[in-house]
Write a structure and sequence with these properties.
Keywords: ATP-binding, Hydrolase, Nucleotide-binding. Pfam families: CT_A_B (PF02626). InterPro entries: CT_A_B (IPR003778), Cyclophilin-like_dom_sf (IPR029000), PxpC (IPR052708). The chain is of the alpha+beta class and 305 residues long. The protein has 2 domains: 169 residues, no CATH class; 126 residues, Cyclophilin, CATH 2.40.100.10. The protein is built from 4 helices and 20 strands. Strands 12-19-16-17-14-13-20 form a 7-stranded mixed beta barrel. The longest helix has 12 residues. The model has no long low-confidence stretch (mean pLDDT 95).
Length: 305
Protein backbone atom coordinates (compact mmCIF):
# COMPACT_ATOMS: atom_id res chain seq x y z
CA UNK A 1 0.00 0.00 0.00
CA UNK A 2 1.18 3.52 -0.82
CA UNK A 3 0.10 6.85 0.64
CA UNK A 4 -0.06 10.57 -0.08
CA UNK A 5 -0.02 12.87 2.94
CA UNK A 6 -2.38 15.83 2.61
CA UNK A 7 -0.64 19.12 3.46
CA UNK A 8 -3.42 21.50 2.37
CA UNK A 9 -7.07 21.07 1.42
CA UNK A 10 -10.45 22.82 1.33
CA UNK A 11 -14.07 21.67 1.80
CA UNK A 12 -14.26 21.46 -2.01
CA UNK A 13 -11.62 18.69 -2.17
CA UNK A 14 -13.39 15.34 -1.83
CA UNK A 15 -13.09 11.65 -2.58
CA UNK A 16 -15.53 10.80 -5.40
CA UNK A 17 -16.38 7.96 -7.73
CA UNK A 18 -19.28 7.35 -10.16
CA UNK A 19 -21.83 7.76 -7.36
CA UNK A 20 -24.35 5.80 -5.32
CA UNK A 21 -27.11 4.00 -7.23
CA UNK A 22 -30.18 1.99 -6.32
CA UNK A 23 -30.85 3.88 -3.08
CA UNK A 24 -32.89 6.94 -4.07
CA UNK A 25 -36.07 5.23 -2.91
CA UNK A 26 -34.50 5.48 0.56
CA UNK A 27 -34.03 9.23 0.18
CA UNK A 28 -30.27 8.85 -0.42
CA UNK A 29 -28.83 11.01 -3.17
CA UNK A 30 -26.35 9.96 -5.84
CA UNK A 31 -23.15 11.91 -5.19
CA UNK A 32 -20.16 11.22 -7.41
CA UNK A 33 -17.82 13.23 -9.63
CA UNK A 34 -19.46 16.30 -11.16
CA UNK A 35 -17.30 16.02 -14.29
CA UNK A 36 -17.53 12.30 -15.00
CA UNK A 37 -15.68 12.74 -18.31
CA UNK A 38 -12.53 14.09 -16.62
CA UNK A 39 -12.80 11.41 -13.92
CA UNK A 40 -12.93 8.70 -16.58
CA UNK A 41 -9.87 10.09 -18.37
CA UNK A 42 -7.90 10.31 -15.12
CA UNK A 43 -8.59 6.64 -14.44
CA UNK A 44 -8.01 5.66 -18.08
CA UNK A 45 -4.51 7.09 -17.89
CA UNK A 46 -3.63 4.52 -15.20
CA UNK A 47 -5.60 1.59 -16.59
CA UNK A 48 -8.07 1.75 -13.68
CA UNK A 49 -11.77 0.92 -13.87
CA UNK A 50 -13.24 4.17 -15.16
CA UNK A 51 -15.36 4.66 -12.03
CA UNK A 52 -12.51 4.06 -9.53
CA UNK A 53 -12.38 6.58 -6.64
CA UNK A 54 -10.51 9.80 -7.40
CA UNK A 55 -9.91 13.11 -5.66
CA UNK A 56 -12.11 15.93 -7.00
CA UNK A 57 -10.38 19.28 -6.48
CA UNK A 58 -12.52 22.36 -7.12
CA UNK A 59 -10.78 25.74 -7.48
CA UNK A 60 -7.42 24.54 -6.14
CA UNK A 61 -5.99 24.86 -2.64
CA UNK A 62 -4.88 21.21 -2.51
CA UNK A 63 -1.41 19.83 -1.76
CA UNK A 64 -0.08 16.31 -1.09
CA UNK A 65 3.36 14.80 -0.44
CA UNK A 66 4.31 11.33 -1.66
CA UNK A 67 5.37 8.95 1.10
CA UNK A 68 6.66 6.44 -1.50
CA UNK A 69 7.58 6.63 -5.18
CA UNK A 70 4.38 6.39 -7.23
CA UNK A 71 2.64 7.16 -10.51
CA UNK A 72 -0.49 9.34 -10.47
CA UNK A 73 -2.72 10.92 -13.12
CA UNK A 74 -4.36 14.33 -13.46
CA UNK A 75 -7.25 15.30 -15.75
CA UNK A 76 -9.81 18.07 -16.01
CA UNK A 77 -9.27 21.72 -15.15
CA UNK A 78 -5.89 23.40 -15.30
CA UNK A 79 -5.43 24.46 -11.67
CA UNK A 80 -1.80 25.53 -12.08
CA UNK A 81 -0.60 22.13 -10.86
CA UNK A 82 3.04 21.83 -9.84
CA UNK A 83 5.38 19.05 -8.76
CA UNK A 84 7.59 20.90 -6.31
CA UNK A 85 8.16 24.09 -8.35
CA UNK A 86 7.80 22.56 -11.82
CA UNK A 87 4.55 23.14 -13.77
CA UNK A 88 2.45 20.05 -14.49
CA UNK A 89 -0.15 20.15 -17.26
CA UNK A 90 -3.31 18.03 -16.87
CA UNK A 91 -4.43 15.12 -19.07
CA UNK A 92 -1.42 12.93 -18.28
CA UNK A 93 0.01 10.44 -15.82
CA UNK A 94 3.23 11.39 -14.04
CA UNK A 95 5.78 10.08 -11.58
CA UNK A 96 5.98 11.47 -8.05
CA UNK A 97 9.09 10.51 -6.10
CA UNK A 98 9.11 9.98 -2.34
CA UNK A 99 9.09 13.38 -0.65
CA UNK A 100 7.94 15.29 -3.73
CA UNK A 101 5.01 17.64 -3.36
CA UNK A 102 2.05 17.95 -5.75
CA UNK A 103 0.09 21.18 -5.41
CA UNK A 104 -2.99 22.44 -7.24
CA UNK A 105 -3.14 26.18 -6.75
CA UNK A 106 -5.85 28.13 -8.60
CA UNK A 107 -7.90 27.92 -11.80
CA UNK A 108 -6.31 28.83 -15.12
CA UNK A 109 -8.93 27.02 -17.21
CA UNK A 110 -11.92 25.11 -15.88
CA UNK A 111 -12.94 24.55 -12.27
CA UNK A 112 -12.51 20.90 -11.26
CA UNK A 113 -9.44 18.69 -11.57
CA UNK A 114 -9.35 14.96 -10.89
CA UNK A 115 -6.39 13.18 -9.31
CA UNK A 116 -6.23 9.41 -9.77
CA UNK A 117 -3.99 6.73 -8.27
CA UNK A 118 -3.34 3.13 -9.40
CA UNK A 119 -6.34 1.01 -8.46
CA UNK A 120 -8.24 4.01 -7.08
CA UNK A 121 -7.98 5.71 -3.69
CA UNK A 122 -9.13 3.68 -0.70
CA UNK A 123 -12.06 4.66 1.50
CA UNK A 124 -15.08 3.28 3.31
CA UNK A 125 -17.65 1.72 1.00
CA UNK A 126 -21.11 2.97 2.01
CA UNK A 127 -24.17 1.69 0.13
CA UNK A 128 -22.01 0.58 -2.76
CA UNK A 129 -19.91 3.71 -3.21
CA UNK A 130 -17.10 5.77 -1.70
CA UNK A 131 -18.52 9.02 -3.07
CA UNK A 132 -18.49 11.84 -0.52
CA UNK A 133 -21.83 13.50 0.24
CA UNK A 134 -21.19 15.94 3.09
CA UNK A 135 -24.86 16.76 3.72
CA UNK A 136 -25.80 13.11 4.21
CA UNK A 137 -22.53 12.19 5.98
CA UNK A 138 -21.80 9.37 3.56
CA UNK A 139 -18.62 8.18 1.85
CA UNK A 140 -15.13 9.61 1.80
CA UNK A 141 -12.08 8.19 3.55
CA UNK A 142 -13.86 7.52 6.84
CA UNK A 143 -17.34 6.71 5.51
CA UNK A 144 -18.88 9.72 7.27
CA UNK A 145 -18.92 12.15 4.37
CA UNK A 146 -16.03 14.36 5.44
CA UNK A 147 -14.15 16.43 2.90
CA UNK A 148 -10.42 15.78 2.69
CA UNK A 149 -8.44 17.56 5.39
CA UNK A 150 -4.88 18.50 6.25
CA UNK A 151 -2.97 15.67 7.90
CA UNK A 152 -5.03 12.85 6.40
CA UNK A 153 -3.48 10.11 4.27
CA UNK A 154 -4.75 9.10 0.85
CA UNK A 155 -3.98 5.40 0.42
CA UNK A 156 -3.98 3.22 -2.70
CA UNK A 157 -2.75 -0.28 -3.44
CA UNK A 158 -2.67 -0.64 -7.22
CA UNK A 159 0.48 -1.25 -9.23
CA UNK A 160 2.23 1.56 -11.07
CA UNK A 161 1.26 2.24 -14.66
CA UNK A 162 3.15 3.49 -17.69
CA UNK A 163 3.30 7.23 -18.31
CA UNK A 164 0.97 8.46 -21.04
CA UNK A 165 -1.24 11.37 -22.11
CA UNK A 166 -4.79 11.78 -23.34
CA UNK A 167 -4.52 12.53 -27.08
CA UNK A 168 -5.04 16.24 -27.59
CA UNK A 169 -7.86 15.67 -30.09
CA UNK A 170 -9.84 13.79 -27.41
CA UNK A 171 -9.43 16.31 -24.59
CA UNK A 172 -12.61 18.23 -23.73
CA UNK A 173 -12.51 21.90 -24.60
CA UNK A 174 -13.81 24.16 -21.86
CA UNK A 175 -15.56 26.75 -24.02
CA UNK A 176 -16.15 30.28 -22.81
CA UNK A 177 -19.88 30.13 -23.63
CA UNK A 178 -20.82 26.45 -23.83
CA UNK A 179 -24.08 25.32 -25.44
CA UNK A 180 -25.68 22.76 -23.13
CA UNK A 181 -27.94 20.08 -24.59
CA UNK A 182 -31.24 19.74 -22.72
CA UNK A 183 -33.62 16.81 -23.16
CA UNK A 184 -37.10 18.31 -23.02
CA UNK A 185 -39.28 17.14 -20.12
CA UNK A 186 -42.92 16.45 -19.35
CA UNK A 187 -43.77 19.97 -18.16
CA UNK A 188 -42.13 21.91 -20.98
CA UNK A 189 -45.46 22.51 -22.73
CA UNK A 190 -46.83 24.23 -19.62
CA UNK A 191 -44.49 27.22 -19.88
CA UNK A 192 -45.57 30.29 -21.80
CA UNK A 193 -44.53 30.56 -25.43
CA UNK A 194 -42.38 33.59 -24.67
CA UNK A 195 -40.65 31.71 -21.87
CA UNK A 196 -39.81 28.79 -24.13
CA UNK A 197 -38.40 31.11 -26.79
CA UNK A 198 -36.24 32.90 -24.24
CA UNK A 199 -35.14 29.67 -22.54
CA UNK A 200 -33.46 28.46 -25.74
CA UNK A 201 -32.52 31.75 -27.40
CA UNK A 202 -31.16 33.85 -24.55
CA UNK A 203 -27.96 33.58 -22.54
CA UNK A 204 -27.93 32.43 -18.91
CA UNK A 205 -25.40 33.48 -16.29
CA UNK A 206 -24.20 31.12 -13.57
CA UNK A 207 -25.03 32.58 -10.17
CA UNK A 208 -22.58 32.52 -7.28
CA UNK A 209 -25.25 30.52 -5.40
CA UNK A 210 -23.93 27.16 -6.54
CA UNK A 211 -22.72 23.97 -4.91
CA UNK A 212 -22.70 20.24 -5.57
CA UNK A 213 -26.47 20.17 -5.08
CA UNK A 214 -27.33 22.65 -7.83
CA UNK A 215 -26.48 25.79 -9.81
CA UNK A 216 -28.87 28.71 -10.09
CA UNK A 217 -29.02 30.50 -13.46
CA UNK A 218 -29.80 34.18 -13.95
CA UNK A 219 -31.64 35.45 -17.01
CA UNK A 220 -35.16 36.11 -18.31
CA UNK A 221 -38.01 35.17 -15.98
CA UNK A 222 -39.69 31.94 -17.07
CA UNK A 223 -43.44 31.69 -16.50
CA UNK A 224 -45.08 28.35 -15.70
CA UNK A 225 -48.79 28.20 -16.57
CA UNK A 226 -49.63 24.63 -15.63
CA UNK A 227 -51.40 23.14 -12.64
CA UNK A 228 -49.66 22.76 -9.27
CA UNK A 229 -47.47 19.68 -9.20
CA UNK A 230 -47.16 16.75 -6.84
CA UNK A 231 -43.54 16.08 -5.87
CA UNK A 232 -41.85 13.55 -8.12
CA UNK A 233 -38.43 12.00 -8.57
CA UNK A 234 -35.67 14.29 -9.82
CA UNK A 235 -33.12 13.00 -12.35
CA UNK A 236 -29.53 14.16 -12.57
CA UNK A 237 -29.32 17.41 -14.52
CA UNK A 238 -32.97 18.37 -14.04
CA UNK A 239 -33.60 22.04 -14.87
CA UNK A 240 -36.33 23.05 -12.46
CA UNK A 241 -38.01 26.45 -12.37
CA UNK A 242 -39.11 27.79 -8.95
CA UNK A 243 -41.69 30.60 -8.59
CA UNK A 244 -39.11 33.35 -9.21
CA UNK A 245 -38.69 32.04 -12.77
CA UNK A 246 -34.91 31.55 -12.53
CA UNK A 247 -33.86 27.97 -13.41
CA UNK A 248 -31.81 25.74 -11.15
CA UNK A 249 -29.75 22.88 -12.61
CA UNK A 250 -29.74 20.03 -10.11
CA UNK A 251 -26.46 18.16 -9.73
CA UNK A 252 -25.14 15.00 -8.08
CA UNK A 253 -25.92 15.93 -4.46
CA UNK A 254 -29.50 17.01 -5.28
CA UNK A 255 -32.58 16.09 -3.25
CA UNK A 256 -34.35 12.95 -4.46
CA UNK A 257 -37.84 14.45 -5.03
CA UNK A 258 -39.23 17.90 -5.80
CA UNK A 259 -42.38 19.69 -6.87
CA UNK A 260 -41.14 22.50 -9.13
CA UNK A 261 -41.87 22.22 -12.88
CA UNK A 262 -38.95 21.37 -15.12
CA UNK A 263 -37.88 22.34 -18.62
CA UNK A 264 -36.20 18.94 -18.84
CA UNK A 265 -32.74 17.65 -17.96
CA UNK A 266 -29.24 18.32 -19.22
CA UNK A 267 -27.48 15.42 -20.92
CA UNK A 268 -24.54 13.79 -19.10
CA UNK A 269 -22.09 15.41 -21.52
CA UNK A 270 -23.65 18.83 -20.92
CA UNK A 271 -23.36 18.30 -17.16
CA UNK A 272 -19.65 17.57 -17.53
CA UNK A 273 -19.27 20.87 -19.40
CA UNK A 274 -21.26 22.75 -16.79
CA UNK A 275 -19.08 21.34 -13.99
CA UNK A 276 -16.13 23.24 -15.46
CA UNK A 277 -17.88 26.65 -15.59
CA UNK A 278 -17.07 29.37 -13.05
CA UNK A 279 -19.76 31.51 -11.39
CA UNK A 280 -20.43 34.40 -13.77
CA UNK A 281 -19.91 32.22 -16.84
CA UNK A 282 -22.48 32.43 -19.64
CA UNK A 283 -24.22 29.36 -21.10
CA UNK A 284 -27.03 28.64 -23.56
CA UNK A 285 -29.47 25.73 -23.86
CA UNK A 286 -30.08 23.62 -26.96
CA UNK A 287 -33.23 21.49 -27.04
CA UNK A 288 -32.65 17.84 -27.99
CA UNK A 289 -34.72 14.67 -27.91
CA UNK A 290 -33.72 11.61 -25.93
CA UNK A 291 -32.65 9.52 -28.92
CA UNK A 292 -30.23 12.20 -30.10
CA UNK A 293 -28.72 12.54 -26.63
CA UNK A 294 -28.35 8.76 -26.37
CA UNK A 295 -26.51 8.50 -29.70
CA UNK A 296 -24.07 11.25 -28.76
CA UNK A 297 -23.44 9.59 -25.42
CA UNK A 298 -22.67 6.23 -27.04
CA UNK A 299 -20.22 7.82 -29.49
CA UNK A 300 -18.39 9.37 -26.57
CA UNK A 301 -18.37 6.18 -24.47
CA UNK A 302 -16.87 4.26 -27.41
CA UNK A 303 -13.64 6.24 -26.88
CA UNK A 304 -12.88 4.16 -23.77
CA UNK A 305 -13.76 0.77 -25.21
Amino acid sequence: MKQLKIEASTPLCQLQDAGRFGVRHLGVTQGGALDWVAMHWANWLLGNPLAAPVVEVALGGFCVVAEQDCVLALAGADLDARVDDQPLAPWRSFALAKGQRLSLKQPKQGVRAYLAAPGGFLGEDVLGSRATVVREELGGIDGHGSALGKGQALAFSGTSANLREVPEALRPQYAQKPVLDLVMGAQIGDFSGTSLFEAFNREWTLDSRADRMGIRLLGPQLVYQGAPMISEGIPLGAVQVPPDGQPIVLLNDRQTIGGYPRLGALTPLALAQLAQCMPGAVVRFRAVVQDEAWREQQVYLDRWR
